[in-house]
Amino acid sequence: MTEGKNERLIELERPPVIETAVLVRLILPADGVREIDDSLEEMRRLAWTAGADVAATLVQRRAKPCPGTLIGRGKLEALRAACEEHEAGLVIFDCDLSPSQGANIADALGVKVVDRTQLILDIFALRAQSNEGKQQVELAQLEYLLPRLTGRGSAMMRQQGGIGVRGPGEQKLETDRRIVRERIRRLKAGLESTRKSRRIQRKRRIEGGIGTVALVGYTNAGKSSLLNALTQAGAFVEDKLFATLDTTTRRRELPSGREVTFTDTVGFIRNLPHSLVAAFRATLEEVNEADVLLMVADASHPAAEDHMKAVRAVLDEIEVGEKPFVLALNKMDLATPMQASELETRFGRGVRVSARTGEGIEELLHAIDANLMPQRSRVHLRIPQDQGGIVARVHDFGRVIQQNYEDNVVVLEAEVDVALRQQLADYIV
């Protein structure tokens, strides 16, 4: 960790230290130096967010992972000594462990073992506020825990509690597989109901001519801050990973006069666990159904390019990689022009903004407007009053700006999409 990053962490309100931890990283031949450093730094930040104090970091180079313990018996002894030296009751692995690996390592060390996915789930359990968010986190936790409910490793975790077993998942460790499977089924049914309600709401927005913009980006890229700058939403903002899990949607008018909704979404991260992508499907559908994606990047971050690649990977996974997007290079009050230029070289021209200072916000609104405008156009209509069904169609599937009456004619100024414009061709002046 660099001195600057240490200073940045010290400036923040430190979460209560729950446990002392040792961080472990397996290095394989294909791993690059920068990738290793960035990943370890991110894991330290995740541990810090969860309330763990990382007292030591242990790395092991191997040609391939050890099937039983990932790092091998010899390194396991060194890890045990490190835990004893620092009085650490928690070991965090910068990777995902199989159920057998986790149990074997916990049995050998006599301390609690948490892998990358489990640490992220633990933070999600701390952050979820809405009922929907809590259900999504619980579903992901239960699907992760289901194959790990047997063996001494899980028994030890039940006894110790703390990081890795907080939230709804902790009490579920006491249940058997049948009850857990039934709970998973109920959670999925409840979230499916939420998805249906969201689809109805989206249909109404579309029929009302309201465009939709979804903010996406790496965790802590500044999406919530940017939403506040765009809409005065008052969304919760904190300089921590996964500070916000629950979606926030706000309306505002674009420079063209068109009304749109902006929706903040859960932040992405490298190698985002598939269980989280699946569990947060109801939330991520806001991304699927959006007209335009507002892709937010922290231009000041030294690993910004890798973060953008991770975001693109998740977007491809949920099959929205080809959707129109506007790139917002955020935190330009902290970034250099060179950093922004390097990102634009790799990912295309972006709008340089600062949610904190307001720099570039108007330009960003115009860029979003330009991406939305081709989908709808304004028309002047003269429709005979006895054609009430046509008038109703404009109201239902377009956006009526003004309506007047002249003799036996309804005069409308409206915004309509391409398909509706073709249907109204005979009435366009």
Describe this structure as you would to a colleague.
By secondary structure, this protein is of the alpha/beta class. The protein folds into three domains: 3-129, GTPase HflX, N-terminal domain (Rossmann fold); 209-373, Rossmann fold; 376-427, no CATH class. 47% of the residues lie in helices and 20% in strands. The chain has 17 helices and 13 strands. The protein has helices at 3-11, 33-50, 73-85, 99-109, 116-127, 131-145, 152-160, 168-172, 177-207, 223-231, 274-279, 281-289, 304-317, 337-347, 361-372, 388-397, 418-423, and strands spanning 19-27, 52-61, 90-93, 112-114, 211-217, 248-253, 259-264, 292-298, 325-330, 351-352, 376-384, 399-406, 409-417. The strands form three sheets. A six-stranded mixed sheet has the order 6-7-5-8-9-10, sandwiched between helices. A four-stranded parallel sheet has the order 2-1-3-4, with helices on both faces. Strand 3, helix 4 and strand 4 (112-114) form a beta-alpha-beta unit. The longest helix has 31 residues, at 177-207. The protein starts with a helix and ends in a 6-residue tail after the last helix.
**Largest sheet, spatial ordering of strands:** 6-7-5-8-9-10
The percentage helix is 40-55%
Radius of gyration: 25 Å
Element string (H = helix, E = strand): HEHEHEHEHHHHHEHEEHHEHEHEHEHEEH
Look at the structure and name the CATH superfamily of the largest domain: P-loop containing nucleotide triphosphate hydrolases
* Biggest sheet character: 6 strands, mixed
Number of domains: 3
